[in-house]
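Limitations

Structures in this collection are predictions, not experimental determinations, and the ligand pose is part of the prediction. Treat each record accordingly. The example that follows, with iron/sulfur cluster as the small molecule, is included so readers can see exactly what is and is not provided: the inputs are given verbatim, and the output is the predicted complex.
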Amino acid sequence: MSLQSGIPAAALDAFGRSLGSLRVSVTDRCNLRCRYCMPEEEYVWLERDEILTFEEIARLAGVFMSLGVDRLRLTGGEPLLRRDLSRLVAMLNEAGGRFRGNPPGEKGPASEPLAAPRLRDLALTTNGLLLSAQARTLREAGLDRITVSLDTLRPDRFRQLARRGALEQVLEGLGAVRDAGFSRLKINSVIIRGFNDDELVDLIEFGRRVGAEVRFIEYMDVGGATQWSIEQVVGCREMLQRLAAHYGAIEPFGRNGSGPAPADRFTLADGATFGVIASTTEPFCAHCDRARVTPDGLFLLCLYARRGVDLKAAVRRGDPDEALRALIVNAWQGRRDRGAEERLALRGRGPLVPVEALRQDPHLEMHTRGG
Ligand code: SAM
Ligand code: SF4
Ligand code: SF4
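Predicted complex:
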């Protein structure tokens, strides 16, 4: 144990799980209204002056990285709605020790990577609507990877599902990602019975055409999914059976390469790969190393957590990094969360949080937590 003022460099929680990755939700606003995430007509938003500035986010990310976090993901709401997001990307790279001097893309002396950067992977999850305008600047700012959420390839269904925007915009965004030189593009598809479960093969074939790996996500009963029911969940096993009926034998490929990531990966006979995130029927809490921070700086230990630790208050009252580290480590060491596993054990499972409770506390919403 390396000690920095008595704080272990790698924090372990009560079940021995390390703190390895951080999801930062940069806004609770969204330009879509997906029926599995934001099905209501009205929402209570976080106050604008409560939202962390880029400087505050970069500082917090730096503190998390000093505790062993080496993978960051920007999410939301829709992260690309946050103005000038590429500036934050550059700042996070710098906080992670990747570039000394000017961030890439800015004028001035060439950027210089440090010998052992703390940040190993900087990724973004987006609905893709605004990607065609932003993909290149994000790449130039040092973003490593992009995951685009795309649940259907049919324009009419897209409209029904997302209630705003258009499929065409997402497809243009995917083209821009490729043109900007990103590799390892992923497409996340939430599969809902009776809605898009007839598109499994189409989505895999589409992914093949655009050079992306598709990951099918089981419909989860997270806060905000007020129309969730177990009947609409298509489990991992069923998805694999259906795909095997079309493609023939499917081989497991092991878990995602970048740490204890949730997607189980599979290969088709012709070598194509895809993933399934089986959070609902086969949760992976036992290996979960993921911390979350909401747009207003609430530190959450689990996607299902009812409460969090207010890091914004600590940052804004001027606490030094050491105090922030202690706050984070203390919370993590007491972490016993295994939300999805606990939900699995329930009988008569329904939506996690009633609409009235979501209105009273928007921190319980998936679009605030970032998925
Ligand atoms: N707006 C961005 C997007 O859609 O990619 C980022 C935020 S969104 C909350 C992050 C991920 O959560 C998306 O891939 C979305 O499909 C997923 N998600 C939202 N609600 C879900 C639910 N009820 N079950 C499973 N996945 C869900
Ligand atoms: Fe918005 Fe993403 Fe939620 Fe859809 S899944 S409503 S795009 S935050
Ligand atoms: Fe991690 Fe909580 Fe999700 Fe389980 S439910 S995998 S502990 S975030």
